[in-house]
Design a protein that fits this description.
heterodimer, A: alpha+beta, Thiol Ester Dehydrase, Chain A, 5-stranded antiparallel beta sheet, 3 helices, 5 strands, elongated, B: alpha+beta, 13% helix
Chain lengths: 143, 164
């Protein structure tokens, strides 16, 4: 189905189903390959250590993709993600289990569009918040 | 090594607020989009919208579109200066030589599609320095704009770069 959720059915405080991944070099190397992002800190534990991060760590942009994936799965193929912002506050290491969170904080109709604002983040298996941010999606109306 | 008083360079001062030269992507291909989707969904089959032309035609988009994080500028030639960004194994990192992605804020316009040629430009908007857990840390804010071959806005981004 092209639309999964309608504006009228969204409630404040509603949580979007999480996108969950245990990440390691299988994910990072594939992302490096498509984004041409071959950076030592994402490839080599010594470089990650030299950078003060303990070991090699995953790309912030891959966590960014995971948030978009979660939003896309929730809204369906034909609705639109209009805005996304994240601050990469903490890194993720090999075998961390990342899960996205997205909670509806506001609904508004602007310029004929039905917009839903969400507080988003990417958490690890210790429930540490690694990437706080905000998203805006445009949804269809039943009206 | 003495503590650097600032990581701001004269070159940054010169570039502030000035749009850099435009970059033009190679035409986006279905294969580029499919591989990107596989990479960012690794562990499950990506949504059909990103690889199944027949399904994608049935949607309001009328064909395959790219995931919104898709980067059409990867793998360009001629290659720029080959210099690793950030820490290098076995080498002492100079102060300010560590580079991290601090985050970004995107606003999306039209989706990218197979055949699109994307033109991008960026400018350094501002910066701030403060003491962080890794010592003196420079946060730079860069504004980027992407348009397609019809001049339609694909994306604007404010990205935060971190140096320490």
């Amino acid at each position: 189905m092209a639309y999964h959720v309608y504006y009228e059915d969204v409630e404040l405080g509603q949580e979007v189903p999480a996108f969950v991944r245990e990440t390691d070099f299988m994910n990072w190397n594939r992302y490096a390959a498509v984004n041409e992002e071959f950076v030592y800190i994402h490839m080599d534990d010594e470089a990650g250590k030299a950078a003060g991060q303990g070991a090699a760590f995953g790309m912030g942009n891959l966590r960014w993709a995971y948030v978009l994936n979660a939003l896309r799965a929730w809204i369906g193929d034909e609705a639109e993600v209009r805005e996304l912002s994240l601050q990469f506050r903490a890194v993720n290491h090999k075998h961390d289990v990342l899960r996205t969170s997205a909670v509806v904080t506001e609904k508004k109709r602007e310029n004929g569009e039905n917009l839903v604002v969400l507080e988003v983040n990417v958490l690890n298996q210790k429930d540490e918040k690694t990437a706080p941010g905000r998203a805006v999606v445009a949804l269809p109306s039943r009206g | 090594m003495p503590e650097a008083e600032t990581l701001v360079t004269p070159e940054m001062e010169q570039r502030q607020g000035v749009w850099g030269s435009e970059r033009v992507s190679y035409p986006v291909s279905e294969s580029d989009i499919r591989k990107w989707a596989i990479a960012v969904y690794w562990g499950e089959t990506p949504p059909r919208l990103y690889w199944d032309a027949e399904y994608a035609r049935s949607t309001r988009w009328g064909g395959i579109i790219a995931p919104q994080d898709f980067n059409p500028f990867a793998w360009a030639v001629p290659m720029g200066e080959v210099r690793p960004a950030g820490a290098v194994p076995g080498q002492q990192t100079r102060r300010g030589g560590n580079v991290m992605n601090g985050g970004q804020a995107d606003t999306y316009g039209v989706p990218m599609r197979p055949g699109d040629v994307i033109t991008g430009r960026s400018r350094l908007s501002r910066w701030e320095e403060r003491q962080g857990r890794n010592g003196l840390t420079l946060f730079t804010y860069t504004e980027t704009e992407w348009r397609n071959q019809d001049g339609e806005l694909v994306k604007t981004r404010i990205s935060t770069g971190i140096r320490y």
